[in-house]
From TrEMBL:
GO terms for molecular function: RNA endonuclease activity. This is Toxin-antitoxin system, toxin component, RelE family. SUPFAM superfamilies: RelE-like (SSF143011). NCBIfam families: RelE_StbE, YafQ family addiction module toxin.
Length: 91
């Protein structure tokens, strides 16, 4: 089963910024493809659940200081890509 991918407005802005910064967008979408199939990411991506304001969301490391925050909506089979950026930009 493959989840439909949705982008938040904030994610779209941050994706545009990442492109301007010269980030390897292919790395991002390789991870997104894995997540859309709800497969487990390799341990090197440090995928984990978040707490507090981001309760219910997950975070993974595309690069050491380039993060993806996302959330699964299992009832409607949607993977929502919420935020993208460095630790200092996101937290």
């Amino acid at each position: 089963m493959v989840y439909k991918i949705k982008f938040t407005g904030q994610f779209k802005k941050e994706l545009k910024l990442a492109k301007k910064q010269g980030k390897d967008i292919n790395k991002l979408f390789k991870i997104v493809d894995i997540l859309a199939q709800k497969k487990v990411l390799d341990i090197k991506y440090k995928d984990h659940a978040l707490i507090s304001n981001y309760k219910g969301f997950r975070e993974c490391h595309i690069e050491p200081d380039w993060l993806l925050i996302y959330k699964y909506y299992d009832d409607i089979l949607v993977l929502s890509l919420s935020r993208l950026g460095s630790h200092s930009e996101l937290f």
